[in-house]
Amino acid sequence: MHIKEYLHQMAWKADEKALPSFGSADEFEVWRRQRQKRFHEMLGIDGYLAEERTPLRVTVTGSVDCGTHRIDKLHYQSLPGLYVAANLYVPAGLKEPAPGILYVCGHSATQKIQYQEHSRRFAQEGFVTLVVDTIQHGEVQGIHHGTYSRGMFDWVSRGYSPSAAEVWNAIRGLDVLSELTEVDAARLGITGHSGGGSISWWAMCADDRIKAMASSSGTGHLTSHIRDRTLDYHCDCNFPNNPDGWSLTEAYALAAPRPVLIVAPARDRVFRIDSVRYVHDKLQALYRNIGAEGRLGLFEFQAPHMYTPESRKHVFSWFLTHLAGRPVTPEQATDFDGVKLPVEQLLVFGGKPPADDRSTTVEGGFVRLPVPADIETMEQLATERTRVIAALRKESFAAFPQEPIPLAAEREHEYDLMDGSCSRKFSFSSDSYWRLEGELRGIEGDSPRPAAVALRRSVHRKEDEPFDILKGLGAGWIKARIDPRGTGDSTWGPELNWHVRRSSALIGHTVTSMRVWDTLRGLEAIRARPEVDPARVLLAGKGEMAVVALLAALLDGEVGTLVLEDMPSSFLQADDDPARLGEGFEVINALRIADLPQLAALLWPAKLIVTGKRWQGYEYAERLYARLGGPGRIMYRTDTNGWPADEVRL
Fold it and tell me: Model-level pTM?
């Protein structure tokens, strides 16, 4: 199968999964709260929610009197040093607390300036409105386009998406509104367009204080993003970290039973209308099931990725009806009055953002990474290894098939080598979609012998090349190869690689996790061969395949020796790391569990033969191996020629 078709099939499999049917609204609420807790974990905000929140340090830098309302120019800190620039629109003459609106900006370069008319109109209708800049644009600028354009795929390994930081900024924006005497904290809504439309969804799914939402050009399903490649035009903030492979609809369902309006231009390039309708129909069935019919709306109109006067009126009508308690039809709603203030009147920092602002580097510390475990004994090692493997299976490899299909290994071809030994090619089923190839070389007679298994790389044009990493082995070994996905006959070209990497993460996979599964299945097929001694297996990989070999060996638990050539030093990537532009080796949430040096340490007592470039940053593994001693060893060789016989015993 071609990788593009596979990703499409996996997306559709997630999308067509039915939402549960509930016997009552209470039953749904139990399900929703359980899923919401997991959603917080997926985003990486669960720790922040569990702690006492840090001071907002709201600072007003100026005000503008607009007659019908005033605008306070302010900033707050969602975390210490993480500044959010905002404008607060407060209606004039309030006699009682009013409903509050959080307006989340889309990807406009001028942010709150661009969307000021929305906030103005909301204020004129009696809503206290806080419009907030995003990290990507505005007065303090960070990065949203990590995997989108910069090749920062270590975000995947961190389990970081800018949607997490933006949701947290939104949650703290709700805190700002809730603390105002002018605001009725029981009546908070959220809205935005494009990226702001997406963040409106995710914030509502995360925070129950939001009582109504309108998302403009921010709704779609996985299948469209992959099948139609609309993903290629989407900022990273549109999609939360997704280790469990949820469909977007499954996440959207966390907004129910609260009022939700989906605003969808029928000519939108990046949120195709058929995907919007599909999501709406599935959610409508859920709303109907839990007795909330009438609280989900869809306004579809002929336009590209933009607002129109009609769509804005639907948004204003929605909030007037469902948040302010003033039923108003879209036809009765009022649009903008045409007044716009100049940029300089609305800037919070006046061109001088705070020197200690963390927005430009928030991706480096927003998701908290663990401190490596202090291991002194074999018992502690065993405990930590059990914990890490369980965490990897839950957080990084949840996409592994729950019930593996039969391997159905078959001999494909047999031929004789010049040294008189035999070579046998075989195929096996990795899962229902993939039939992969492998080979055994150096078979002599029927007596089981140890097998050295090399992982093929996509750069290997010929099937002989994977065996180069095994050239230091002496006689007595069967040399084998496995062709994981993206190598050999299943190779895809570099022009597709970026899309494949982003699409894989979107549905809860990565290229590396797929290859780890393929390797485990390939090892199973090789060990089942009568000519192989299943208890004596060596596994070898180079570059990105060295990471695959390490992870497969850790999960497998029976690999006695690894050959790791040009092993990366970390799942983290430097600006000049070629993996940013190449195939990479990202694994969802891996860094939330352990980095490569810690994973290597957990392989003890396996022997680790490190070839090519010397390991950098592996002091943790080296210390642990030295502390626990034999039979585990880490051995360094500049190349694989002439390994001493006692280093890799048969």
Answer: 0.96
